[in-house]
Amino acid sequence: MRALLSVYDKTGIVKFAKELEDLGWELIASGGTAKVLNKAKIKTIPVKKINGFPEIFDGRLKTISPKIEGALLFDRENKKHLKEAKKFGILPIDMVVCNFYPLRKGIDVGGPAMVRAGAKNYKYVTVIVEPADYKKVIKFLKEKKEIPLSFRLKLAQKTFEKTAEYDRKISQFLKNDFQK
């Protein structure tokens, strides 16, 4: 199992990642998240190793790539999707842990794209957008060895609520900025 961690709010991420690692998960992490986890002696695979491209434009482009989005989107029961994933070297990502950076830092594009892709494919992908959900996810993994579909659906709903809220904030921010 593989998880992609790319968080602005690092609250609880070290403990959560350590528990995933102890459960045998492979952890992929973006720059800032990888630094925090590596400092805590948690092994991560850099996003750039997955997508074959470094972070550029001062971190504006990190996770948007066919190898990341494809790993989240493909239907794991669809033979055509499986064949295409194999052809292009796309390995599944089973969990996305991401929260967005605040608007004062700029508009987050990659984070929302990534969580939307994962949430669209909630049948196979668990998306966590709030640190408050870490404990429950770990509990499911320890007790049931998986995250139930019903809980993945709840997390997907929360994800789309968060992205809608973030989009509303962006719209208001731009509206206010334009009126100045």
From TrEMBL:
GO terms for biological process: 'de novo' IMP biosynthetic process. Residues 1-129 form the MGS-like domain. One of its GO terms (cellular component) is cytosol. Pfam families: AICARFT_IMPCHas, MGS. PROSITE patterns: MGS. One of its GO terms (molecular function) is IMP cyclohydrolase activity. InterPro entries: MGS-like_dom, MGS-like_dom_sf, PurH-like. Keywords: Hydrolase, Multifunctional enzyme, Purine biosynthesis, Transferase. PANTHER family: BIFUNCTIONAL PURINE BIOSYNTHESIS PROTEIN ATIC, BIFUNCTIONAL PURINE BIOSYNTHESIS PROTEIN PURH. This is IMP cyclohydrolase. It comes from Candidatus Nealsonbacteria bacterium CG08_land_8_20_14_0_20_38_20.
